[in-house]
Write a structure and sequence with these properties.
With 454 residues, the protein is an alpha/beta fold. 35% of the residues lie in helices and 20% in strands. Bound molecules: N-carbamimidoyl-L-glutamic acid and zinc ion.
């Protein structure tokens, strides 16, 4: 047992003072006591928040960040971006994918993410032949997470069709080709890797890429409590195509046919009717919001206020990784709602009128949908902590809600000092022991990928 002491910590009910945190030898919080004495415990270097979950990652896309911000056609949009992304991933080999993911995961840790849901669909060799070990690419992401020290939920994706109506995959989608049996085999082959910080789930890619029968087949074959992540209703074209093919909007169809519950993460869920919004909120599912990517791709605006008012759960994802920072995601989430409503201070809860505190607590709690015991500083959960640097000028004189608000709304950088994942400290003093090596191999991978690009 190790015992830590924080002058201030963000507990489920809000900021508390003089908090004693016991972590057992397996990396779980054993007890959390506020108003406690510091005696016999090790002092943390500043205010403490629960570790943040990154619900939705396509790690390889980090290597493209900044490369698609050039207008190539008068009507550049999500679909033209997708073509560039497909082209980019064609040649990425397993070693490069691992180098990109390892570097990304280290950067995410340094910004306060302690767990990642890796929604993984680049299964096959270029051309579409499965690797000798069909789990090769998935294992590379596991290895990257272990090297980084981030908790990971491996979400092998089922990607069967190019579009609704069982349209055959296009040649540039050949690396994704997979069946329910293929995905279930991947789950079996990673079973020996599982631990409290390595979880496996599945990711039927979307209603575009998975037909209803295959979705049913996959979901009905899963062990209890397996996380199920799916993209839904991100683009209006997808909503229209879904209505033509299935007679329902994507989220409406899922609610009627797949009974999403606490195991489910609906990624984006951008385009909802008021009826879908409240039904989804009451389903127990979590929405995986990816604010910086959704902005980057011009997806649209999620009805966050109505969804929260109906009791909906959500978390955040880095998705295409145009950001690696939870602060940027949360700030963007609130600002987009302000721009629409032309009001301020919108995401606030019963616990506190402070937006920063509310956003961090709610998004962290969304980490449950990674299938890992996480989401708060509370006994029985994995010990994930984000310790801020009390010496930073942007935190000077601040306490409680003002800390979380300064973190999210002051543009401060470098506030995160130490990060604990399952009782271990992959980041200490703002540094990660593997960062130099990870940077060297990331740069090498990027040089190779960009050199080969055409
Ligand atoms: C993805 N990204 O899976 O990476 C998708 C694009 C697709 C987003 N939806 C690929 N943002 O939709 O087929
Ligand atoms: Zn995605």
């Amino acid at each position: 047992m190790r015992t830590w002491f924080a002058r201030e910590a963000l507990l489920p009910e809000g900021w508390a003072n003089d908090v004693r945190i016991e972590v057992d030898s397996s990396g779980d919080f054993a007890s959390v006591t506020h108003g406690a004495s510091a005696e016999g415990s090790e002092a943390l270097a500043g205010p403490v928040l629960p570790g943040m979950a990154n619900l939705h990652s396509h790690a390889f896309q980090r290597a493209m960040a900044g490369l698609t911000e050039v207008r190539a056609a008068p009507d550049d949009d999500f679909w033209s971006w997708r073509e560039l992304m497909y082209r980019f991933l064609q040649r990425m080999n397993p070693a490069q994918a691992q180098a990109v993911a390892r570097h990304l995961y280290i950067e995410m840790l340094k910004h306060g993410y302690t767990a990642v849901g890796e929604f993984h669909y680049v299964h096959n060799e270029p051309g579409g032949k499965p690797y000798a070990d069909s789990a090769e690419m998935l294992r590379r992401h596991h290895a990257a997470a272990i090297e980084a020290g981030i908790a990971i939920t491996l979400l092998p994706s089922l990607y069967r069709w190019a579009n609704f109506g069982r349209q055959p995959l296009q040649p540039r989608q050949a690396r994704f080709d997979s069946s329910p049996e293929f995905v279930l085999r991947l789950l079996e082959s990673v079973a020996e890797l599982l631990s409290p910080d390595v979880v496996a789930g599945v990711a039927p890619h979307s209603l575009r890429a998975v037909d209803p029968a295959a979705l049913r087949e996959l979901v009905s074959s899963l062990p209890a409590a397996t996380p199920i992540h799916i993209h839904a209703a991100e683009q209006t074209k997808e909503v229209e195509d879904c209505i033509s093919a299935l007679g329902r909007r994507p989220v409406e169809w899922l609610l009627e046919n797949a009974s999403p519950d606490v195991r489910w993460c609906l990624v984006h869920a951008t385009h909802l009717t008021p009826g879908e919004t409240s039904a989804l909120a009451k389903s127990g599912a979590t929405v995986g919001l990816c604010p910086t990517t959704e902005g980057n791709l011009g997806d649209g605006i999620f009805p966050l206020l109505a969804y929260r008012a109906a009791g909906g759960r959500y978390g955040i994802g880095g998705d295409s990784h145009v950001s690696r920072d939870p602060v940027e995601e949360l700030r963007s989430l609130e600002y987009v709602q302000r721009l629409v409503a032309r009001r301020r201070n919108l995401v606030v809860g019963a616990r506190t009128p402070a937006v920063g505190t509310t956003l961090w607590l709610e998004a962290a709690a969304g980490g449950r949908v990674l299938g890992r015991r996480m989401g708060a500083i509370a006994p029985g959960l994995r010990a994930d902590l984000v310790v801020l640097d009390a010496g930073q000028p942007d935190l000077a004189g601040k306490s409680g809600d003002a800390i979380a608000n300064a973190l999210i709304f002051s543009g401060a950088t470098g506030l995160v000092r130490d990060v604990m994942v399952g009782g271990a400290w992959p980041v200490r003093g703002g540094r990660h022991a593997g960062e130099e090596m990870a940077t060297v191999s990331y740069k090498k991978a990027l040089a190779e990928l960009l050199h080969n690009a055409n």
